[in-house]
Write a sequence for this structure.
């Protein structure tokens, strides 16, 4: 994870592709097998009721959407972002 998010381009794309395959496979399983969806929903409800978690962010939290996107270019032989 640290390599994929740490600015090494060669590790970013494979990680994202693998995550996408995993998530899409899970969605397909849940969409095509109602019994799997029901079991997952029941497990989620059971775990949520057994150990309720408080909200991780305050209700008035505003996401920092104005941050610049990383620029993985090399200038002078050094990577910067």
């Amino acid at each position: 994870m640290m390599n994929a998010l740490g600015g090494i381009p060669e590790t970013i794309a494979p990680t994202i592709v693998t995550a996408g395959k995993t998530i899409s496979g899970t969605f397909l399983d849940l969409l095509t097998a109602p019994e799997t969806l029901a079991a997952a929903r029941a497990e989620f409800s059971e775990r949520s009721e057994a150990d309720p978690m408080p909200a991780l962010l305050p209700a008035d939290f505003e996401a920092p959407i104005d941050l610049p996107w990383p620029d993985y270019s090399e200038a002078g032989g050094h990577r910067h972002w």
